[in-house]
Amino acid sequence: MKKFQIGIIFFLFSYLLVGCQQTLTTQNELDTNDHVEGFVEPEPSDWVEYSKPVREYMYYRTQAVIKNDINILWKRYPELKKTINVEEGINLEKNEVETLNNGFKVLDANYDIENYERIKVKKIDENEMIVLVHGSLLYLLDDFEETGGEYLMKVFLKRNGEQWDVVKTDEYTLLEYKKWIKQKNE
User: Domain of life of the organism in this record (predicted)?
Assistant: First the structure.
């Protein structure tokens, strides 16, 4: 029975990790194909500037899940508690914390922001950037089973002095992910 529950949780979590994307209207209507959207691999000299805030975000996200306290993430990124929309995949972190801690204790987490491909970036202006992340995220449960997997998401960054802050996350839904893969392979 416990394996069945883990299977259900894995399925739900995988669906949530894939998330969904929101259409941006700040420049042009966006397609789901990353090169059409204007995402490019950052120059090696810029890679650290954009990967570091994403890794930091993932650290706080996983700590919130492990400690079953969304405020760990929200204290660092207060903008993420605004405009939560599960159907559109916007700022799903609270849902992830609640779902993964429903009936289980999460012991540990491993993430790789470039497990499937290198990050890509899209510059909105001097103070705003979107990072496309295609990585993996696994959680270790108290029965030593794992849950999680692949995720595809946009991480919206805004400059705050000398650093970038995450102000929004937008995870692809399963349908959007399949469409993205299909267009990417065309």
Answer: Bacteria
> Which tokens in the block code for residue 174?
């399963």
Domain count, the chain: 1
pLDDT at 86 over 90: no
**Closest by alpha carbon to 153, among 180, 126, 186?**
180
Which CATH number does the domain housing residue 93 bear? 3.10.450
The predicted pLDDT at position 182 comes to 83
Question: Within a 10 A sphere around the Cβ of 57, how many other Cβ atoms?
Answer: 25
Token pair in block for residue 141: 């449960």
State the first-to-last Cα distance of the chain, in angstroms, to the nearest integer.
42
Question: For the chain, what percent of residues have pLDDT higher than 70?
Answer: 80
Percent of the chain at pLDDT exceeding 90: 64
